[in-house]
Design goal:
Elements (H helix, E strand, L loop, with lengths): L1 E10 L2 E11 L4 E5 L6 H8 L7 E6 L2 E2 L5 H6 L2 E3 L12 H6 L10 H6 L1 H21 L15 H12 L6 E5 L7 H18 L2 E5 L3 H7 L3 E5 L2 E6 L1 H6 L1 H8 L1 H8 L1
């Protein structure tokens, strides 16, 4: 679904992404791991249109999407979440979800004056869908709670729910487990698996929790120094000496040999 070819993103003399080439298969949950400064988030930002590449290409379903802005990629079904959730804190969870779809009739002044019936129909459909999403994510009890009052893990679930309000094809998750307690992390993991298996979502996720990665992801791609270092199953990655030295540390290697 996504193909990245010899991608570079430089900041002055610093090469955050330095010739990365990789593929994300349709229907997969692909993990992206690596040490801090490996270029993972910068790679996400370039793919998702937040940053232009210095050079290289990005393709989605064979189409060159290099450098397209986020709103165009959104309409193509490419979405991303952030390490720090971006919610509308003063709005309820339900309202946060209802805000997501673009092109709503109520966005134009003409329709606000003369198309109130159509607006009401759209809002009723959006409300129904939002409630279905909240139920799917097991947070329907929070539908009227202000999003700013949610815990970190609940905000991550809400952000995942926002991707369900449109026809997402691929979702890039940036450290969805960061700062989330184990119970909520399991809930998030269950939701990702269900979206993948029941609704055909493709995911690529940056994550440092290797147990979480191991539960969800196949394959796992390791980045180091701005490029792909290795790719394979979690077992293959954990047994790879280059990965152990670059990312996991010699302690795991010694533990495995003991």
């Amino acid at each position: 679904m996504i193909r990245v070819e010899n991608l570079h993103r430089h900041f002055g003399g610093f090469r955050a992404v330095d010739g990365a080439s990789l593929e994300i298969a349709k229907g997969s949950i692909t993990g992206l791991v690596g040490p801090n400064g490996a270029g993972k988030t910068t790679l996400f930002n370039v793919i998702a249109g937040a940053l232009p590449p210095t050079s290289g290409k990005v393709f989605m379903d064979g189409e060159d999407i290099t450098g397209l802005p986020p709103h165009e990629l959104f309409h193509k079904g490419l979405l991303r979440t952030f390490q720090i959730a971006h919610e509308f804190s003063s709005m309820s969870c339900r309202e946060n979800l209802m805000m997501v779809p673009g092109g709503q009739s109520g966005e134009t002044l003409w329709n606000a004056w003369f198309g109130r019936g159509r607006i009401a129909q759209e809002e009723a459909a959006l409300l129904k869908k939002a409630d279905e999403v909240l139920d799917f994510l097991t947070i329907s009890h929070l539908k009227d709670e202000k999003a700013g009052n949610l815990s970190g893990g609940q905000k991550k679930l809400l952000e995942l729910g926002r991707t369900m309000m449109v026809d997402a094809k691929i979702v890039f998750l940036d450290e969805v487990g960061a700062g989330v307690n184990r119970t909520l992390l399991n809930t998030i993991g269950d939701a990702i698996l269900r979206l993948n298996q029941e609704r055909g979502y493709t995911f690529c996720m940056i994550e440092h929790d290797m147990d979480f990665i191991g539960r969800l992801c196949d394959p796992v791609i390791v980045m180091a120094e701005g490029k792909k270092l290795a790719e394979g199953t979690i077992a293959h990655i954990k047994a790879n000496n280059e990965v152990i030295e670059a990312y996991l540390g010699t302690g795991l290697k010694n533990k495995g040999a003991a």
